[in-house]
Amino acid sequence: MAKVITNRVFFKGKRWEFTLNPGPFNIKEHVLITIFANSGAGNVYAIHIVSAVKIFYKQNLTFFVSLLVIITTQVLGFGWAGIFRRYLVEPAAMWWPQNLVQVSLFRALHEKEKRIKGGLTRNQFFLIAFICSFAYYIFPGYLFPMLTSLSWICWIFPTSVLAQQLGSGLHGLGIGAIGFDWSSISSYLGSPLASPWFATANIALGFALITYVITPVAYWFNIYKAKALPIFSDDLFTATGQRYNISAIIDSKFHVDIQAYEREGPLYLSTFFAMSYGVGFACLTATVVHVFLFHGKEIWQLSKSAFQENKMDVHTKLMRKYKQVPEWWFICILLVNIGATIFTCEYYNNQLQLPWWGILLACGLAIFFTLPVGIITATTNQTPALNVITEYIIGYIYPGFPVANICFKVYGYISMKQGITFLQDFKLGHYMKIPPRTMFMAQIVGTIIAALVHLGTAWWLMETVPDICDRALLPAGSPWTCPGDHVFYDASVIWGLIGPRRIFGDLGHYSAINWFFLGGAIAPLLVWLAYKAFPNKHWIRLITMPVLLGATVNMPPATAVNYTSWIIIGFFSGFIAYRYYRNWWSRHNYVLSGALDAGLAFMGVLLYLCLGMEHDSLSWWGSDPDGCPLASCPTAQGVVVKGCPVF
Predict the structure, then answer these.
(1) Would you state the pLDDT for residue 310?
(2) Who is most buried in 59, 237, 375, 609, counting CB within 10 A?
(3) Distance between CA atoms of 17 and 10, rounded to whole angstroms?
(4) What pLDDT digit, counting tens, does each position of 22-75 carry?
(5) Burial class (CB in 10 A: 0-12, 13-18, 19+), 65
(6) Omega before 557 cis (within 30°)?
(7) How many Cβ atoms are within 10 Å of 302's Cβ, its own excluded?
(8) Share above pLDDT 90 across residues of the chain, in percent, rounded to a whole number
(9) Which spans are transmembrane here (predicted)?
(10) Is the pLDDT of residue 133 over 90?
């Protein structure tokens, strides 16, 4: 563009002079475009409210109210980001590993580099990896979906329920299962190539502990009637293993009907789903205790403005040359957004159910947890999922209102998560020396545009795709099964409609799971005491209990094969390549991660436009994404489930 557009300067020498030629496209412009895109590239979590109400509960929620909820949720995170910039962006210790992938990619694309004889420049390496990723994704994405999960144990034992429970990568514990689909590998935990090895090891240990020790023991000892249910499922069940009829316990006012609930009987969860909530409780308390013990001193010093000029890292010193974004900008956005949120929930209370005090309580939780969760994310590349505490609190205080529960969760948890995303982008701009005010405007505009695009797209899909999210009516291998929306809906039933007291409290049969709160608080304390007792054993400090205990909080909707494949690649990248092929790792590891993501993204869009919109699909044995039809079968005597043997 710079070569073909005229260099003429209009109104030269005057205040309003301008030129149509922007000059050569440089790395800072590229970074700013990326930050603009990042503000809306991730999933807009509040869309789940729309799908839960319209698709699953089949209740009324207007487009305008949905738009207000989505925009206020996204923008609320700016307030938390502004408050915690000095703690999570300026210190060198907050290094945000995921940003290194993007920094490496920018350098590969923009820096001129001489090709080493017999080798490749980083730009050439990126292009080759990009083309390979682009071409390859047509196999798991369309031609051969089974590559998502190769569960070979199921092939060896096609009639064994036990073998398929153990071996299924999508519906079981995933022993031996492996996937060759990058979209599946990186979808829940991020790129394994960007994960520090100590974080990968923590996740591997936590996954093995929960998936291969706690869950099998609970299942085969038949705790909570586990054998009458699938070992891994995000569905809700009766005591006899049948799907729970949620619509039967909702009255005409969209509130729980207690008498109907007592007639239907108590709600049961699959073993893994119940244990997932348990480790979610543990992760919550472990995060607070870990940050207090291992980072409390640094937080206190920063709170007292102890970071003087001579203690700043080089990036912070250089960024001081730019005009900073004033604190009051963030405070104004925060206050205006809270006011708009309260108005929305009060004026449209018949649709959203959440009272004004719920907004203030959600904001209090968000501001409390942003710092500890941000520290874990900035140092390990893993974000503890603390949505369970928001569901738990509002479920006890305001039971029986499912939409109020999910709105409270979105404002209390997702606004915090969105704030952490903004902080990560602030750090990227910090590394690449982007003027803070320019970056701030890019984030604001990107966030608002993304909210409009995401909602418009979701609304269009819900109106045009037949039987969307209905697993019983959709064909096998359909991309419209909505696993994340199912889990979100199930959570609204558990925590909002029925309420935690009737499931995890004194009126429920899962009350013992509350002991996980105590276990999570004790675990980091034991690590801290061990580190103090053996200060020369530096590896002890790398045991990060919030990451270890929170390893499986994404399961479900994440499945075992998402983790097994991620851990294997993380091991080869973070341990083998880093230790034994350091030169290759330093030049190509992060570039490879970016190339795999980019190739996948382009082919994914192409497949959808060419084939997905026409609903064209292949039907052959490779179209079955798992090949383990018995993995979800119960093993209790006398339980009858369609398609399963009766024991």
Answers:
(1) 44
(2) 375
(3) 5
(4) 777 788 888 888 888 777 666 688 899 999 999 999 888 999 999 999 999 888
(5) buried
(6) yes
(7) 17
(8) 42
(9) 31-57, 63-84, 125-143, 197-221, 267-293, 328-349, 356-376, 396-414, 440-462, 512-531, 563-581, 590-609
(10) yes
Token duo for residue 365: 């939780």
Tell me the backbone φ, ψ of residue 256, rounded to 5 degrees.
Answer: -65, 135
Which residue type occupies 309?
A: E
C-alpha span between 107 and 110 (Å, rounded): 5
**pLDDT confidence of residue 615:** 65
CA distances from 445 to 37, 344, 417, 438 (A): 10, 22, 18, 11
Report how far residue 646's alpha carbon sits from residue 272's, in angstroms, rounded to the nearest whole number: 22
For the chain, percent helix, then strand, then coil, each to nearest 5?
65, 0, 35
Answer whether 626's CB lies under 8 Å from 169's CB: yes
How confident is residue 517, by pLDDT bands cut at 50, 70 and 90?
very high
| Per-residue confidence (pLDDT) for residue 429, from 0 to 100 | 86
| Pairwise CA distance, residues 51 & 545, whole Å | 34
Place of tokens 């109400």: 53
Structural tokens at position 73: 């949720």
The Cα 555–Cα 164 span in angstroms is 18
Contacts of 290 (CB under 8 A, 6+ apart): 372, 376, 524, 527, 544, 545, 546
Q: From CA 370, how far away is CA 307, in angstroms rounded?
A: 21
Average pLDDT of the segment spanning 146-157: 91
How far apart (Å, rounded) are the C-alpha atoms in residues 284 and 304? Answer: 27
